[in-house]
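Supplementary Note 3. Input sequence used for the single-chain structure prediction.
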Amino acid sequence: MRHHTIMGRPLALGLVSLALVACENSADDLEPFPPFPDPPPAAVFEVTVTNLTNAQPLSPVAVIAHTDGYQVFAVGQAASPGLEELAEGGSPASLIAEADASAAVIETTAGTGPIGPGASETIRLVVLESELNGLRLSTSTMLVNTNDAITGTNAIGVGDFISGDRASYLTIAYDAGTEANDELAIHIPGPAAGGEGFNAARDDIADRVAMHTGVVGAEDGFPGSDLDGQHRFDNPVARVTIERVE
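The predicted structure, written as discrete structure tokens, is reproduced below.
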């Protein structure tokens, strides 16, 4: 036992000495971490959509930042499949996925839920300052107590906005031209009817985007209509305010 104790002492001391040397050498060899690079400068926009109708909730709003190579729709031309799905069912998902596939689209986002009559929602969108040249913003939403009515802004130029700049636009209702305006509950997804949303079959003989002629309703002699006078609307149907906040 004595022999082992005597022999163990210098061994332990030697290990401690080696550890201290190793630590000293490691500390000397360490290099400071490089500083984190500053994030690239960005521009922040807030898009506020206000529902001006009496009884037409607006579906979650699609917001798309893009250049001249993209547009949500063109009057007189057929709606894209993504716009058709928004116009009939109220979901912006397909329209945004369609936009994301375009090389001209820079950033997309969507609102968090429907916007009731008289209510507003503010949606924030961020782009790099290097992407501001020629930047445009488009918005689109469905009037959900209709067959396929939409409203929004189409390619508003915001590339020259500086922080604090703000512009407002009154928007009108368009007919997507993808579903006949039969005003039947089975084809209207909104709370007035709670029927079917998107249907891939296009049964509107026009098959083109045009100004909407409005809701007629059973009270005004449209037999079988499940809508009434409160669901009618006059233009404008919404206000879209775009502000650069940073």
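The helical segments are 2-29, 81-89, 93-100. The radius of gyration is 30 Å.
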